[in-house]
């Protein structure tokens, strides 16, 4: 009996194959280095790798980062990675984020409706879904210790100089696509931000040696 290795969904794999890490500036690579170093140090010691991506409202950038990091860890066969997201306050995962990921090939299912919907976000048939919903960074859904806190927005970075339980605090901030909400450029700008995050996290995980 032959076993078939789980593959990332074809459309996502195609999107990843088109990402170009050569476009990342040297300055930006220096910003990404602490995250790569954290992942590598945990890989070397065979410890769990927990990464909590944090933004003010846990509605856009932190979710895109969480989903892409989990996907790219699997893509590059980096073991024991568990990605989370949280905010300094909870609101809702913005629907355009879910739509952007769906357009890239992720399977999105709405588990519950309401003011703060819960989404199942899958990148491969046999891998656990990322559960997407807005929550505070210290929510019970998130780790309490031994994690890296990656600050994805400057407001949360400035407002949270200390993250309780974080082993390492790493600012990797992205421009907010919210500025283009309800404009003709909305879909384009969300896709642009999603692919920037994917490209930079691809650069990080591509460096990890098992």
TrEMBL record:
InterPro entries: Ptyr_pPase_sf
Domain of life: Bacteria
Protein name: Arsenate reductase
Organism per entry: Arenibacter algicola
Lineage, top ranks: Bacteria, Pseudomonadati, Bacteroidota, Flavobacteriia, Flavobacteriales
